[in-house]
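Re-running Inorganic pyrophosphatase to confirm reproducibility after the cluster update. Everything else is unchanged from the original entry.
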Amino acid sequence: MFNPWHHVAAGDRIPQYVNGIIEIPKGSRAKYELDKDSGMLKLDRVLYSSVYYPANYGFIPRTYCADKDPLDILIFSQIDLVPLCVVEAKVIGVMQMTDNGEADDKIIAVAANDVSINHVNDISELPPHFVHELRHFFEEYKTLENKKVIVEEFQQRDTAEKIVLDSLEDYKKYILPLTEGTPFA
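Result of re-run:
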């Protein structure tokens, strides 16, 4: 059985470039999420608030984080990317946040094959309004669910690259041993 979390490579130019697997296209109110067992996308919920994802959203394969999920990634592109699309993405920063008291980093990247944005090398080069939109979206999108998200800070590329490397190591340490002898191996 194919599972994108386990069977898609994280990339071949890590940590500067990674593969992102899209779960949610930019502009969507649907919160799709990878079903970790089947590898299929499932509808987790339709956002309660009248807000839309400001960037393509997904995860980096073969990563694992403290929230017991793969590492999240937001990929800027001039187009909305389809779910389960594999996108080579240039890491430019990270948004560090707390979701219901739990750390939940979001890598910020640009689509490597989109010439309208791939010249950006660090989050500091993004238009300030993009960063404000990200902060606003994540601080508000769970408000009507009575859940609290706190965007703590945005960090530059070097911090993001370290988080990518750490999450790859955590996958090898915590997840890979569990997949040996399974269809994921």
